[in-house]
Every structure is written in C-alpha cells, then in structure tokens.
Amino acid sequence: SAVISQKPSRDICQRGTSLTIQCQVDSQVTMMFWYRQQPGQSLTLIATANQGSEATYESGFVIDKFPISRPNLTFSTLTVSNMSPEDSSIYLCSVVLGSNYGYTFGSGTRLTVV
Amino acid sequence: DAKTTQPPSMDCAEGRAANLPCNHSTISGNEYVYWYRQIHSQGPQYIIHGLKNNETNEMASLIITEDRKSSTLILPHATLRDTAVYYCIVRPIYTDKLIFGTGTRLQVFP
Hints:
heterodimer, A: mainly beta, four-stranded antiparallel β-sheet, about 0% helix, B: mainly beta, five-stranded mixed β-sheet, 9 strands
C-alpha cells in the first residue's frame, strides 16, 4: 500500500486566516481525495484531486473556500481559506493504487480555529 | 449509490470473535463492499473489501450473503487494540470515491 505524509499534523489558527495542508505520497497516483472530519462525526469527502485538471468538489464544498492544488502525481495541497471556528476539524488526504487495493489515509491535520 | 446501515455500537470480550454486521439491501451487482476502521485520533485503516465472494486476510474475514444485501466483518480473536469505529462502505466500480457512513463503535473489554 502507499505511504502518505501529511503536514502539519496539527495547528491552531486565528479566524480570518488561511492554512495550507500538504499531502505527499510515496507512489504515483492518479487521484487524491480530501476529507473533513468534524468533532465526533464521520468523514465527509470534500473533493477529488486529479493531476492536470481542476479538483471535483462534493456538494456543500466550494473552490473559493477549499482551493486544491495537484502539481504532480505524488503531491497535493488543500487550503482552508478565511477560517472560522466552524472549520475546526481533522482534515485527511487519501489515495488508492488500484481497484485491488484498499484506500490509504494520511494521519490527518487537526485544525483548531480560535 | 447503495446506502449502508450499521448498529451504532457493539461490545466484545477480549479473545472472542467480533462479528460486525452491515446491511446494504439496495446494493447492485457492480458495487464493492469495503470495511475500514478508525482508532481514536488516527486516519482510517483499510481492513478488507470484496465484490461477491467471501474474503479473508490477516486481519479479518468478510462474509457477504448470497443475495449481497448484507455482510459481516469477523475479527476472529478480538484484542483491546481492536477498539475502534468500524465503517462499512459500498463503492460502485465506476467511481473511485469512498463515502463514509456513521459506522459501528466496537468496544473490546478485558
């Protein structure tokens, strides 16, 4: 399976600022996925990031709030923009190597907005 | 896409088999069943997945009923480290997205 390095592991940010989360994979992958996990809740898919094209966002998530970059097949960033306390969550990236493999998740970024 | 239903919580004694059920009565023939678990404060961990046949690996067994409307994840000898939230997910073969439900919180006790 793939190995994912996600940074930062946690951060405390002021409201109104932005935070960029990085996801580095040790294998080339076509798609990378970004999730949000609010306190005590399950995971919610934010968007799918393909290399060379714009990310595809799920209902309720917009590019202006969560811009995503995917410059190559092993790296992606998610930015949480103009943060408010409601953005306090764990953000996770995920990849899959192929249909015979399970999806691998990063260890997550625990974001607290004050 | 098929929806899954899981009990919100279950208990299991250490050393016993943990049998976690999942109902996916609207599943179609081209949808995989995946199981993941999330131990507190960690990213989800892949356990097993299958399409039609039962599957077994070093972690668990996946039993899918013949009509595919439900499945059971079996942890043969539960340990305290298996305490986690377990998610059953149905994924169509034509999409790569994993959509999580609410899961089952499994508590393994001594």
